[in-house]
Amino acid sequence: MANSAAILTDAFPSNERGKALGINVVAGMSGTFLGLVLGGILAVFYWRYVFLISVPFGISGFVLSYKLKELSIKALKTKIDIWGNITFVLGITLLLVGVTYALIPYGSNSMGWNNPWVITSMILGLISLILFPIVENRVESPMFRLDLFKIKSFTYGILATLLSALARGGVMILIIILLQGIWLPLHGYSYSSTPFWAGIYLIPLTVGMIIMGPISGILSDKYGPRWIATTGMTIVTLSFLLLVALPINFSYLELGLILFMMGIGNGMFGSPNNAAIMNSVPAKDRGVASGMMYTMFNTAVPASIAIFFTIVVIGLTQNFPEAMTSSLASIGAVQLAPILSNIPPTAALFSALLGYNPVTGILTALPASFVAPIPHSTLNTLTGITWFPSTLQNAFIPSLRISFYIGAIISAIAAILSALRGGKYIYKEEPPKTGSKADLTPQTVESKEKTS
After folding, report:
1. What Cα–Cα distance (Å) separates residue 205 from each residue in 29, 125, 201, 255, 419?
2. Taking the model in full, what pTM does it have?
3. What is the 3-state secondary structure (H, E, C) of the chain?
4. CA-based Rg of the chain, rounded to a whole angstrom?
5. Which among 427, 451, 337 is positioned nearest to 391, based on CA atoms?
6. What's the topology of domain 1-78+153-452?
């Protein structure tokens, strides 16, 4: 991933890089779509077959990569940034491990933020990341070229990339949980089929990105990336607000149109923004710039999952006991409320995602004398396919809407940063004088839009 943007930037002139990177987006999204379909088909036979998909494509990718010709301008002296790698990887790993374990109940609490190991991991991770820029300013060949942040177009593009990934990474997982654990079972889909159909129902998002990726890239080559990328993130912001307004008993057409709209927005943003980042740096730094761009993206996605899962778990902690009590009262089984209301929110969430009803196991473990007075019809309702998803839905949706609001705010900030990047900027390198090395100086190329 890190090398693809650099390779394409080297291979195409500046007035075609948006189109090239847009086609690259189409390739990635098409692969995602194909993987969803093939994975769903193979999982019907045996779930481990899903992993076989990677084998032929991995071999093909190796062969094609081996046949590539080197076009890049190599730096004269380059070394592996050992200390930079250690501080960055250690910091990110400790932070993400800490946040992951914070989502697991600890003691009598529904989450593990007060777990000493979580606190220690978070503190050590933050210390390591604070040391990272200090190290990068002192090593000979830094993995992160901090001086590139002096380039306005690069800085605002990288920050917009970070926020875009932060907005959609975790929310997409929550939409999958909504479909797979709640909406699909409530609409008659068996638990065994929900993973496949959840993937199929997310296809409008992929289609939107496939359609708009090359188009936005071509337009950015002609008119500049600023307002195209800004419009894209504005559309994503509106999509999040429409998701907030989605009723509990929504029809799939409503959700599908919003996902398609979100895909259009992300497609409008991705290609122009990536092209703007890669156009803004010297040729010898394209590999580093591409690596920094994808590092920001790939760091933001798991961080986003942790953030939005925390929001949802906190909301479930507050709403799930009341929703469970109310639902049990409606079927005449309120005597079970003290037991079932204590199901940990994370257990309820992942039970829905993994496709089983935790109530069944709890009832099995209870003494027969306690379960015997409960009518058989009530027990069938409790252990059926719709009762638990319906109960979870009432507690899950309010937290999900808060997540959508936060996604909208983050996307709006990304849109503002994209607008502040300035006019079209392409780093131009002066040809070398006779008998001397190239004198590399940045030059600004203005598009038809005026630079503010």
Report:
1. 10, 34, 9, 10, 24
2. 0.83
3. CHHHHHHHHHHCCHHHHHHHHHHHHHHHHHHHHHHHHHHHHHHHHCHHHHHHHHHHHHHHHHHHHHCCCCCCCCCCCCCCCHHHHHHHHHHHHHHHHHHHHHCCCECCECCCCCCHHHHHHHHHHHHHHHHHHHHHCCCCCCCCCHHHHHCHHHHHHHHHHHHHHHHHHHHHHHHHHHHHHHHHHHCCCCHHHHHHHHHHHCHHHHHHHHHHHHHHHHHHHHHCCHHHHHHHHHHHHHHHHHHHHCCCCCCHHHHHHHHHHHHHHHHHHHHHHHHHHHHCCCHHHHHHHHHHHHHHHHHHHHHHHHHHHHHHHHHHHHHHHHHHHHHHHHCCCHHHHHHHCCCCHHHHHHHHHHCCCHHHHHHHHCCHHHHCCCCHHHHHHHCCCCHHHHHHHHHHHHHHHHHHHHHHHHHHHHHHHHHCCCCCCCCCCCCCCCCCCCCCCCCCCCCCCCCC
4. 25
5. 337
6. Growth Hormone; Chain: A; (1.20.1250)
Q: Is the pLDDT of residue 46 over 60?
A: yes
Q: What angle do CA 258, 262, 263 make, to 5 degrees?
A: 115
Burial of 5 (0-12, 13-18, 19+ CB in 10 A): buried
pLDDT digits (tens, 9 = 90+) for 326-378: 888 888 888 888 888 777 777 777 777 776 777 877 888 778 777 778 888 88
- State whether the Cα torsion 416-419-422-428 is positive or negative: positive
11, two tokens: 């291979």
Do the beta carbons of residue 303 and residue 125 sit within 8 Å?
no
Give me 268's structure tokens: 């409008």
Inter-residue long-range contacts of 105-108, CB under 8 Å, 24+ positions, other chains counted: 105/344, 105/346
Enumerate the domain spans of the chain.
1-78+153-452, 80-140
Count of residues making up the chain:
452
Residue that is written with structure tokens 């300035």 in the block: 422
Say if CB 293 and CB 13 are below 8 A apart: no
**348, two tokens:** 């309820």
> What's the mean pLDDT in 103-107?
80
